[in-house]
Amino acid sequence: MRWIYWVGWLLFRSAFRSLFGLRIRGAEHLLTEGPVLVVSNHESFLDPPLIGTLYADEMHFLARKSLFKGPAKWVYRQWNSVPVDQEKPDMSSLKTIIRLLKQGQRVLVFPEGARTQDGSLGEAQPGVGLIAVKAGVPIQPIRIRGAREALPRGEARLKFARIEVHIGEPIVLTKEDLREAKGKAGYKQVADRLMAAIADL
């Protein structure tokens, strides 16, 4: 683990437990070895480091391309962030994620694509279904509660709110699932299945 990632991991881990009283439900379901596509609802900017601290080793994240400027670019790279252009999405970031998963890495993706406005779950984008099908690795559904209250969208000041993370049973797509997932409609069906698993937590 690179030192900058490790320092961030320690700071965030301590903060989530001491300031936000982090509670983890379903820890027995957490996949800690091998490639894993982690899918979660998206409540706050706190979500990526929050999920990252669940694991004792590194994982990869998606981050807005606009954040990769100046010194922050180096920090985001050290934190294993993959730049994505939300205004003009293309296949390059998806291909990067799929390649990382096939190399045995762990990657976090938010199926909704953006943080929630009001706390409700949004609609899954087909891109996460494409990643799941093309990578063919186990999928770890996770639901976050309380992060929006701690740092709502559009706010810059942290608030003290209890955060809970619910970890669901892993999902493994069968050969039949992979055969049936053809084109955008098929990828959307897989994405909806993953979002339903998150909603059930």
From TrEMBL:
One example GO MF annotation: 1-acylglycerol-3-phosphate O-acyltransferase activity
InterPro entries noted in UniProt: Plipid/glycerol_acylTrfase (IPR002123)
Pathway it works in: Lipid metabolism
Pfam families hit by this protein: Acyltransferase (PF01553)
Record keywords, A-Z: Acyltransferase, Transferase
Recorded superkingdom: Bacteria
Phospholipid/glycerol acyltransferase domain boundaries: 36-147
A Gene Ontology BP annotation from the UniProt entry: phosphatidic acid biosynthetic process
Official protein name in the record: 1-acyl-sn-glycerol-3-phosphate acyltransferase
Provenance organism: Haloferula rosea
